[in-house]
Structures are given as structure tokens and as C-alpha cells.
């Protein structure tokens, strides 16, 4: 079951874990119902899981020199 908390954040999604990662790319939400949920299913670098590449991408802290793929 998917659950949105009082602040409007996804807090639960069945058996999947949910991580809230504050981002400098965030702005205020428009009033009204949520009608779109984007779930990112990526790894950075590709096919390398468990690192912090995705988090760094979404927080504008990805080191372009950390991996040849980022060049």
C-alpha cells in the first residue's frame, strides 16, 4: 500500500523502502491533488548498485572525476 504523509511525502510503499532525500532542486508544490509520482529506478554508474551516485546526482554533488561514465 502506498501512503502519503500529512506533509505530502511518500512515507510507505508496500514492501519497498522509501528514502526522502532533500534536494536543492526542490520547490514548493502546487496546491491540489497529487496526480503524478515519479519513481527513479537507476544506478550510477550503470549496473553498479549500492553506491551513492544516484543520491549525489539528485543533490548536485556528483564528482565528475569519480568514474569514467560521469565524464
Task: Give short descriptive properties of this protein.
71 residues, little secondary structure, two-stranded antiparallel sheet, 1 helix, globular
Topology:
Blueprint (H helix, E strand, L loop, with lengths): L1 E3 L5 E4 L39 H6 L13
Antiparallel strand pairs: 1-2
How would you characterize this protein structure?
The chain is low in regular secondary structure and 71 residues long. Helices cover 8% and strands 10% of the residues. It is built from 1 helix and 2 strands; from the N terminus they run ββα. The protein has one helix spanning 53-58, and strands at 2-4, 10-13. Strands 1-2 form a two-stranded antiparallel sheet. Strand 1 (2-4) and strand 2 form a beta hairpin. The chain is globular, with a radius of gyration of 15 Å. The N and C termini lie far apart (39 Å). The model has no long low-confidence stretch (mean pLDDT 86).
Amino acid at each position: 500500500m502506498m501512503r502519503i504523509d500529512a506533509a505530502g511525502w511518500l512515507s510507505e510503499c508496500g514492501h519497498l523502502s522509501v528514502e526522502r532525500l532533500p534536494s536543492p532542486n526542490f520547490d514548493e508544490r502546487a496546491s491540489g491533488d497529487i496526480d503524478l509520482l515519479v519513481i527513479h529506478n537507476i544506478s550510477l554508474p550503470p549496473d553498479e548498485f549500492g553506491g551513492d551516485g544516484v543520491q549525489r546526482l539528485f543533490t548536485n554533488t556528483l564528482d565528475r572525476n569519480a568514474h569514467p561514465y560521469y565524464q
